[in-house]
Write a structure and sequence with these properties.
The complex is a heterodimer. By secondary structure, chain A is mainly α. Chain A contains three helices and no strands. Chain A folds into two domains: about 55 residues, no CATH class; about 30 residues. The chains are: A mainly alpha, B mainly alpha.
C-alpha cells in the first residue's frame, strides 16, 4: 500500500459537511415527522459516520482486508440489533397458554 | 525477497517483509480492536433502544429535559477536534514535526473543552435531581413512572460516562504522541502510532455522532 496523503481542502470540505449535518439534525429534531423522526436522525448520523470513516479514518485508501473487517463488524452489529429487536418487537404477538 | 535479512528499523521490524506490510498489519489490528468497541457500545445502544420503545412517553419527556445546546455544542467541538486530528496525522505523514505537535495540541484542547462542557452538564443534573438514586425527581412525570425516568438517566450517565472515559484515554494518547513527536521519534516513513491514535480519536467521535441524536434529539418535537 502506497501512502495516500489527502489535501487539506478535502478534509476541510468533509469538516464543513459534518458541521452542516450536525446543524441539520438539530434543526430537524424540532419538526414533527412522526415515526420518521428517529429514521431521519439515524440516517444523518450514518452519513456522518461514513464521512468520518471514509475520509478521516482513511478507509477509502485502506486495504481490502481492512474494509472486509470493517463491513464484517458492522454486519455483526446489525445481527445483534436485528435479532434482539425481532425478539422484543414480537413478544406480545402470541399469548402464553395458561396465563 | 523475504528470505533476505534486513536491517531492523522502527518502520520495518524484522518479522515483516516491507514497511507497507507492517503498516497494514498495524492498521488492521487497530480496526479489529475498534470493532470490539463497536460491539461494546452497540450493546448499550441496543439496551437504550429496547427501553425507549418500551417506555416511549417517559423517555421522550426525560430526553427533552436534557439541554440540547450543550449536546450540539459538544458535537461541533468533537467534529472540530477530529478535523485538527486529521491535520495532525497529515502533518506527520509529511514529516512536519511542528505542524503535528500544534494540531495534536489543538485536538487535546478541544477534547478537554468537550470534557469541561460534559462536567458542567452533569453538574446541572445533580442540581436538578436528575441523577438516579434517592431524591430523583423529574417534573411532569407521574410518581409511579419516575422509575422509568430513572432508567433513562441511568442509560444517559452510563453511555455518556463511558464515552467520556474513552475521551480521557484519547487525551492521554494524544499527550503521549505529542511527547514522542517532540522527542523526534517519528518520521514521514514511520508515524504509525499517530495514525493509530487518529483512528481511535475518530472512532470516539463517531460514537458521539450517534449518542447526540439518540439521547438529545429524538422526540425533541414532543417535549416541553
Amino acid at each position: 500500500m502506497t501512502q495516500h496523503i489527502d489535501s487539506v481542502k478535502t478534509y476541510a470540505l468533509v469538516f464543513i459537511a459534518l458541521v452542516f449535518l450536525t446543524l441539520l439534525t438539530t434543526a430537524v429534531a424540532y419538526v414533527d415527522l412522526g415515526p420518521f423522526s428517529p429514521v431521519v436522525a439515524l440516517a444523518i448520523a450514518t452519513a456522518k459516520m461514513l464521512l468520518v470513516a471514509l475520509f478521516f479514518m482513511h478507509v477509502r485508501h485502506s486495504t481490502q482486508l481492512t474494509r472486509l473487517v470493517v463491513t464484517g463488524g458492522l454486519l455483526w452489529l446489525a445481527i445483534l440489533i436485528f435479532l434482539t429487536l425481532a425478539d422484543f418487537g414480537t413478544r406480545g404477538w402470541l399469548g402464553v397458554p395458561g396465563r | 525477497m523475504a528470505s533476505e535479512a534486513h536491517a531492523e528499523t522502527l518502520a520495518l521490524r524484522e518479522q515483516f517483509d516491507t514497511a507497507a506490510q507492517q503498516k497494514d498489519v498495524a492498521t488492521l489490528g487497530m480496526w479489529i480492536f475498534l470493532i470490539t468497541e463497536v460491539m461494546f457500545f452497540g450493546g448499550m445502544f441496543l439496551a437504550y433502544t429496547v427501553y425507549r420503545s418500551s417506555y416511549p412517553n417517559v423517555f421522550a419527556r426525560a430526553s427533552s429535559s436534557i439541554n440540547v445546546y450543550y449536546g450540539a455544542l459538544n458535537t461541533v467541538v468533537l467534529i472540530c477536534s477530529s478535523f485538527t486530528m486529521v491535520l495532525a496525522v497529515r502533518g506527520a505523514q509529511l514529516g512536519k514535526r511542528i505542524t503535528t505537535i500544534v494540531f495534536l495540541g489543538l485536538t487535546l484542547f478541544l477534547g478537554l473543552v468537550f470534557l469541561g462542557v460534559k462536567a458542567f452538564e452533569w453538574g446541572e443534573k445533580f442540581h436538578e435531581h436528575h441523577v438516579p438514586g434517592p431524591g430523583f425527581h423529574l417534573a411532569g412525570v407521574p410518581p409511579g413512572l419516575q422509575g422509568q425516568a430513572q432508567l433513562f438517566f441511568s442509560l444517559y450517565f452510563a453511555m455518556t460516562g463511558l464515552h467520556a472515559l474513552h475521551m480521557v484515554v484519547g487525551a492521554g494518547l494524544v499527550i503521549t504522541m505529542m511527547w514522542l513527536t517532540y522527542k523526534g521519534r517519528f518520521t514521514a516513513e514511520y508515524m504509525t502510532p499517530i495514525d493509530i491514535t487518529g483512528l481511535y480519536w475518530h472512532f470516539v467521535d463517531i460514537i458521539w455522532i450517534f449518542l447526540f441524536p439518540l439521547l438529545y434529539l429524538v422526540d425533541r418535537h414532543m417535549g416541553k
